[in-house]
Specification:
The structure is a single chain. The chain is mainly β. It has two domains: 5-116, Immunoglobulin-like, CATH 2.60.40; 123-199, Immunoglobulin-like (Sandwich). Helices cover 7% and strands 52% of the residues. The chain has one helix at 5-19, and strands spanning 26-34, 37-44, 49-58, 64-75, 81-87, 94-102, 107-108, 112-116, 123-126, 133-138, 146-151, 157-164, 168-172, 179-187, 193-199. Strands 3, 4, 6, 7 and 8 form a five-stranded antiparallel sheet that branches. The radius of gyration is 23 Å and the shape is elongated.
Length: 204
């Protein structure tokens, strides 16, 4: 069947417009740091399906690039289906922005953003030196209980946290005096991890 030029233009235009829309049949879209990768997860509602899915990350030129994919049909049963994408080479010490492209012109997910900081010996500190906020990240894939304590240069206890089950701690150091601080990090039955944070103040 032949399609006139006008109808073909309208068909292509509608297809491109749909490609930019958010697909409504997904849920649980999240991204988190898992040791030294970023894990992106999502689910597809029961009864819905897509013709493959691509994980895309915004590059330094502002263009989304494909970095992982699922081929074939995703979802489609009467029950929800769950999927996970690992990004094994996220941008280090930068904001990583992700989205999922569902099938062929079925639409996209919303965007997710996460700052990736590589772990060294199971712990990362960023920024270090710090002046306002400092994030400590560590391996805690099983969401075990974390015990955290930090001390100033004289050995005085500054802060103690005992009910953490995440894989990161955000410290507000804006009111702390400039200097070196040391902390102990204990996760379940693992050996205590120790590291130092330098709090710096810019000169007036």
């Amino acid at each position: 069947m032949r399609i006139s030029g006008l109808l073909y233009f309208l068909f292509i235009s509608l297809g491109l417009q749909a490609q930019g829309d958010e697909w409504l049949n997904y849920f649980g879209f999240r991204a988190y740091q898992l040791n030294n990768i970023v894990q992106v997860e999502f689910g597809i509602v029961g009864g819905a399906s897509c013709n493959g899915a691509r994980l895309q990350r915004l590059n330094e030129n502002g263009v989304f690039e494909n970095i992982n994919q699922i081929t074939g049909v995703c979802g489609g049963s009467e029950f929800p289906e769950y999927y996970a994408f690992p990004d094994e080479n996220p941008l280090k010490y930068q904001l990583n922005t992700y989205r999922i492209e569902f099938g062929f012109q079925q639409g996209f997910s919303r965007r997710l953003e996460i700052i990736f900081t590589p772990l060294s010996k199971g712990v990362s500190i960023s920024p270090n030196p710090a002046s306002d906020e400092c994030r400590i990240q560590f391996e805690n894939t099983l969401s075990n209980k974390v015990e955290f304590s930090i001390y100033d240069s004289t050995g005085k206890l500054i802060l103690e946290l005992n009910e953490i089950y995440e894989n990161s701690i955000l410290l507000n150091v804006s009111s702390w005096q400039a200097g070196m601080y040391s902390f102990n990090l204990k996760i379940a039955d693992q050996p205590v991890r120790k590291a130092k944070i330098l709090v710096a103040r810019s000169s007036e």
